[in-house]
Amino acid sequence: DRHLQTGSTALLRGLVEGQRILSRAKRGWVWNQMFVLEEFSGPDPILVGRLHTDLDVGSTPIKYVLAGEGAGTIFAINEITGDIHAMKRLDREEKAEYTLTAQVTNRDTDQPLEPPSEFIIKVQDINDNPPQFVEGPYRASVPETSQVGTSVTRVTATDADDPVYGNSAKLVYSILEGQPYFSIDPNTAIIKIALHGMDREMREEYLVVIQAKDMGGHMGGLSGTTTVTVTLTDVNDNPPKFSKSLYEFVIPEDLAIGQPGGKVKANDRDIGENAKSTYNIIDGDERDVFEITTDAQTQEGILRLKKPLNFETKKSYTLKVEAANIRFDPNSGAPFKDTATVKIAVEDSDEPPVFSKPTFVLQVDENAPINTVVGTVTARDPDVTGSLVRYFIDRHTDLERQFNVNVDDGKITLAKPLDRETDMWHNITVTATEIRNHSQISRATVAIRVLDINDNAPEFATEYEAFLCENGKPGQVIQTVSAVDKDDPIQGHYFEYRLIPEMLNNPNFTIKNNGDNSISVLAKHDTFRRQKQEMYFLPIIVTDNGNPPMSSTNTLTIRVCGCSREGIVQSCNVEAYVLPIGLSMGALIAILACIILLLVIVVLFVTLRRHKNKPLIIKDDEDVRENIIRYDDEGGGEEDTEAFDIATLQNPDGINGYLPRKDIKPDLQFMPRQSSGPNGVDVDEFINVRLHEADNDPTAPPYDSIQIYGYEGRGSIAGSLSSLETASSDSDQNYDYLREWGPRFRRLGELYSVGESDKET
């Protein structure tokens, strides 16, 4: 036993029971207020140590009390003996030490006999955790053909055991699988290349198994493993290689320019950018006839045509094609490349006729007679057989059919006269077709220029109208005249102006040449008066310089006007001098407008008066039928739109008198209030007045509206109820039957009965 004294009043003693410890292969001891205990996994309790006090002499009832971390749960104390036991599994990786407090109390009164003393229970590590690769499995890559010793990647393993105590956490790395290609440093865990000349094209991926073992790699240590997948990345170490050294193609001679004529391909064992190649024609006859491009998707070389082929001229071609890598290693000095020979045989095809030139430019004089030969187009069949050719005009380019072409020799002739002033150029398309194969057609454009001849006389540039002031001076320029000509001579226009022979000695006007194809018209005197002559006409002959010369006579109109002192024209009408009392033209127009306005007002007034005197309701004296009105509802519906006379509402003030009702027979006449108003009375006001009169009329039945029917209807099974147009008179009628029809006709029966009684009296 060892005794540890703390202070002067308390003493904790740890007792180690060697028998129990030896039986469980565990060790425990007390050192400097600390119990050290190796971690264990249970399940039986294990003695940690024993507490003892000098007060425990047998006469005093004492009790040991334990408090602190894990007291009562992980650690338990015997209250009488002071033995401390671990009741649960102790794992250093979870908690390495526990701090507890021990105290001695009176067993009967629980009064403390000593102050509490603190001590520590430390859990000693054992090698119970294997190494683990937390980040595994790993993936790494390294370029192919890397040098031996090139670093690939680094792995890391962790051990949860105590790295300070013993070798439980000391790790050593080794390769279980992956030799002889890779090696690993046992301490740093860096994986390196171990074999020279590793080729991706032979093997691209390797699986390496790495082991980490604790206890410094000695026997009895725990271990863990992980995998590292190493991928060799590609480098450009393989040249492109054509699948064959000679390619042969047969291309028809009518292959269109830009169309593919064959494909070649150089295979490259590399991948990605390292496998991309570009193709070029480096040698051969007439290399400018073909070109080769690279298909980015298939990495094929596409042989295309740059110029047309002609079987009759050249039947075969030989080319040398090169394929070279786009990317290359600068250390190699030049990119990888390979070459192949391409032989092309031209296949004869039935070609369409070929014109001697693609565009023909012809000339013809305007107004040339019909059937004049404009020019000739020629075409030939380039094939060996040499078929005859026929010519036609595409009428879509000659809608007016102004030209014809000879089908055999290609001569173009006029079908209609041409006018250069209408169309200076005519563009038509001529087709050439083989006789033996009509599907072989070629086209050529023919531009026909119409040459000018002098067939248009010059004329005034515009319709001139000159104004001459009465107070003008002799020699004053009245008007400057110029001419235009639709023709277009090569030497340009030159016009000659002169008065007609009858006007050579004109006493009023003369002309002067300005030298720029224009003339000035001058006045010879200053005695022009509007009262004497208001307007003058001056004929002028204009002649061009064509061959033959063309001329025309144009008339210049000259008006005599009144002008201000500054020469500004004010009035050119002679009436201004003969108006009475000096009225101006504006005043005359105003008076005339007033007269027209008065006439319009009179006509409107007479029209309105006539319309007012017309009766609003046209009644036929011979139509004496009684109107029977039937009401099934209050207010009219769509059937009532023709049941009343709309003329009453259209001209409500046209009825000034009272119209008697036909549907009743009153015994007294109620004269409604007479109302009259001016034309244009408000319809709403008129309706309200009539409604008020109807409401206060004692003779009116309780109907909501008045309906006037032109006839009773055809085929009525009830017959006519009217007493009119019958052989009997009112005096012969007996209306007593109306009382038998019910309460609705009682009032009607009383009215007619009253009428009969009045007649008798």
TrEMBL record:
<protein>
    <submittedName>
        <fullName>Cadherin 8</fullName>
    </submittedName>
</protein>
<dbReference type="GO" id="GO:0000902">
    <property type="term" value="P:cell morphogenesis"/>
</dbReference>
<dbReference type="GO" id="GO:0002009">
    <property type="term" value="P:morphogenesis of an epithelium"/>
</dbReference>
<dbReference type="InterPro" id="IPR027397">
    <property type="entry name" value="Catenin-bd_sf"/>
</dbReference>
<keyword id="KW-0812">Transmembrane</keyword>
<dbReference type="InterPro" id="IPR020894">
    <property type="entry name" value="Cadherin_CS"/>
</dbReference>
<dbReference type="GO" id="GO:0008013">
    <property type="term" value="F:beta-catenin binding"/>
</dbReference>
<keyword id="KW-0677">Repeat</keyword>
<feature type="domain" description="Cadherin">
    <location>
        <begin position="134"/>
        <end position="242"/>
    </location>
</feature>
<feature type="transmembrane region" description="Helical">
    <location>
        <begin position="577"/>
        <end position="606"/>
    </location>
</feature>
<dbReference type="GO" id="GO:0034332">
    <property type="term" value="P:adherens junction organization"/>
</dbReference>
<keyword id="KW-0732">Signal</keyword>
<dbReference type="GO" id="GO:0016342">
    <property type="term" value="C:catenin complex"/>
</dbReference>
<dbReference type="GO" id="GO:0045296">
    <property type="term" value="F:cadherin binding"/>
</dbReference>
<dbReference type="Pfam" id="PF01049">
    <property type="entry name" value="CADH_Y-type_LIR"/>
</dbReference>
<feature type="domain" description="Cadherin">
    <location>
        <begin position="243"/>
        <end position="355"/>
    </location>
</feature>
<dbReference type="InterPro" id="IPR002126">
    <property type="entry name" value="Cadherin-like_dom"/>
</dbReference>
<keyword id="KW-0965">Cell junction</keyword>
<keyword id="KW-0472">Membrane</keyword>
<keyword id="KW-0106">Calcium</keyword>
<keyword id="KW-1133">Transmembrane helix</keyword>
<dbReference type="Pfam" id="PF00028">
    <property type="entry name" value="Cadherin"/>
</dbReference>
<keyword id="KW-1003">Cell membrane</keyword>
<dbReference type="GO" id="GO:0043083">
    <property type="term" value="C:synaptic cleft"/>
</dbReference>
<keyword id="KW-0130">Cell adhesion</keyword>
<keyword id="KW-0479">Metal-binding</keyword>
<dbReference type="GO" id="GO:0005912">
    <property type="term" value="C:adherens junction"/>
</dbReference>
<dbReference type="InterPro" id="IPR039808">
    <property type="entry name" value="Cadherin"/>
</dbReference>
<dbReference type="GO" id="GO:0043679">
    <property type="term" value="C:axon terminus"/>
</dbReference>
<dbReference type="GO" id="GO:0007156">
    <property type="term" value="P:homophilic cell adhesion via plasma membrane adhesion molecules"/>
</dbReference>
<dbReference type="GO" id="GO:0007043">
    <property type="term" value="P:cell-cell junction assembly"/>
</dbReference>
<comment type="function">
    <text>Cadherins are calcium-dependent cell adhesion proteins.</text>
</comment>
<feature type="domain" description="Cadherin">
    <location>
        <begin position="460"/>
        <end position="582"/>
    </location>
</feature>
<dbReference type="GO" id="GO:0016339">
    <property type="term" value="P:calcium-dependent cell-cell adhesion via plasma membrane cell adhesion molecules"/>
</dbReference>
<dbReference type="GO" id="GO:0016477">
    <property type="term" value="P:cell migration"/>
</dbReference>
<feature type="domain" description="Cadherin">
    <location>
        <begin position="53"/>
        <end position="133"/>
    </location>
</feature>
<dbReference type="GO" id="GO:0044331">
    <property type="term" value="P:cell-cell adhesion mediated by cadherin"/>
</dbReference>
<dbReference type="InterPro" id="IPR000233">
    <property type="entry name" value="Cadherin_Y-type_LIR"/>
</dbReference>
<feature type="domain" description="Cadherin">
    <location>
        <begin position="356"/>
        <end position="460"/>
    </location>
</feature>
<dbReference type="InterPro" id="IPR015919">
    <property type="entry name" value="Cadherin-like_sf"/>
</dbReference>
<dbReference type="GO" id="GO:0005509">
    <property type="term" value="F:calcium ion binding"/>
</dbReference>
<keyword id="KW-0325">Glycoprotein</keyword>
